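ASSEMBLY PREDICTION REQUEST
Request ID: AP-0331
Submitted by: J.K., bench scientist
Number of chains: two
Total residues: 635
Priority: normal
Notes: Please return the full assembly, not individual chains.
Input sequences:
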Amino acid sequence: MSMKEIRRFTAVQLAERIKQREISVKEAVQAALEQINEVETAIHSYVTIEEEGAMRQAEEVQKKIDSGELSGPLAGVPAAIKDNMCTEGLLTTCSSRILGNFVPTYTAEAVLNLQKAGAVILGKTNMDEFAMGSTTETSAFGITRNPWNLSHVPGGSSGGSCAAVAAQECFYALGSDTGGSIRQPSAFCGVTGLKPTYGTVSRYGLIAYGSSLDQIGPVAKDVTDCAAVLEAAASYDKKDSTSLKRQDTDFTSALGKDVKGMKIGIPRDYLGEGLEEDVRSAVLLAAKTLEGQGAMVEEFDLSLVEYAIPAYYVIACAEASSNLARFDGVKYGYRSKEYEGLHHMYKKSRSEGFGPEVKRRIMLGSFVLSSGYYDAYYLKALRTKALIKQAFDQAFAEYDVILGPAAPSTAPEIGKSLSDPLKMYLGDIYTVSVNLAGLPGITVPCGLDKKGLPIGLQLIGDCFQEKKIIQAAYAFEQARKMEVSPIAEDGASVIAGWEKSQTAEGGKEQEERA
Amino acid sequence: MEDLDRRRQENCKSCGFSERGQVCGGNRITDETIEYVGILAKLELSPEEKERAKKDMGEMLDYIDKLNELDTKEVEPMSHVFPVNNVFREDVVTNGDDCENMLKNAPEVKERSYRVPKTVD
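STATUS: Completed
Returned structure:
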């Protein structure tokens, strides 16, 4: 089998071929590494590529498969991990200068769970610095490009994970989602991403941004892979005190069930002002498709939609300012070269180590937590969060699943977002409320816009109802008729011709980035 | 988003602030506030960064003020979506001594300890 053919398999398909001895784990790893070598200069999905380590892991995993010790649906499949999850002995930077040399002494629980399921870790994927951003442009180690169109961003903050899956540089990846960071880049890159119910996947070893909102989840080629990866990653973990003891983590059992009689609600506010026409029509067409499968679809009023973004940014920034206080240049990470005394060392190390977006959020967070403003901003946001949760509770009393877009537009052009942060934040309108209410959400590709960029359909479930959104997403995926890879069947990718244009425009782009 | 554009074209009613492309809903951040927040956040900003931070923070707070439209008098602040209470465990050490490995990440080390600038005279 050719490397190109191997790369076209989904994770579950690949594991099956490995089990049947049609493909070795080593060949699977080589197929991914070959693609990384081919496209990485153009796309830059990875911060760190673990070439030798991956080959070593491949041998170990192959032995365990041969001996029968490993037989699960992901055994031997090469995967990528977002660079905010600790990996023992492997550089973990959070795409920040302040962690530019950080090598963890332990591995995040979610990653360990995947390794137990037979994952081979290919490397660590690029992201917005500390997961703060919607474009992967705030990374201290360079931007990632959207594999569908290299002049566009992949979304963020898990942009590297999503681009890597779309460009066939891995078979699946882990991302993290604090306000949409799995679902939005999945939509922009035409891949499938799932944010689980808060507490489903352990956050142990995930470098914290907004702890009450952060959740790790899968980014994959299809719904089946998403369900399988989530099933492997989810676990109760004593080391994360917000981890939940769930018995119902057999997510793959929801695959293949029809949606006859399922009640699906579309919030009217999700179709309103600011939504691009192509996105609106693709999402409504997807709703029609599900209706054609027997689901009952109707529009309804989900209140408080416009209050989710301000509440989210207060809470997320407040938590970030507290969480990022640990980066002080003492125990690990970057320390400034010149300083006078301890406090100046803290200040200088942090000021030189953090990028502008991270500083912006730490400042805002420090402000809303400061005495005199705490009640007016922070507590007000927590009260709003309670109201938003109530609004969802009411909606889920009526509907099994809420359907809408993942983002108001498709992927923006590189360099167009960061100059106007507030405008960028408004792009999170359909994703942040899900984090505030702790709900599960999945995005599935549902079309392309006029520019040929992917559009994502978002399905939101009530707490613990991942199975319902997986069921609906799978049903839609089966009925959907569209090509969902930027890589052509013969393996030709969009990067063909890129290098030529790069030499012509390279200088200009470098300038823009600086 | 169109709402934002519209607001940006209007002058602030309370202070008449009308710099192009900016919104002012009354949250004009002073130099003192930025200094104070810098101390809380342990960040040292350059003069340019300070100006930018004033503008960005003011604009964000104007936007956040939208929350005041909601009556939340009777609503309890929700810090956690599930009724998860404190999780306790026995206070016993379960992990081994990983000192050597952990110190490999330290910017400066002295005798199996982190080295920092002098903190007390």
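REVIEWER COMMENTS: The domain at 2-69 of chain B is CATH 1.10.20.60 (Histone, subunit A).
SIGN-OFF: pending second reviewer
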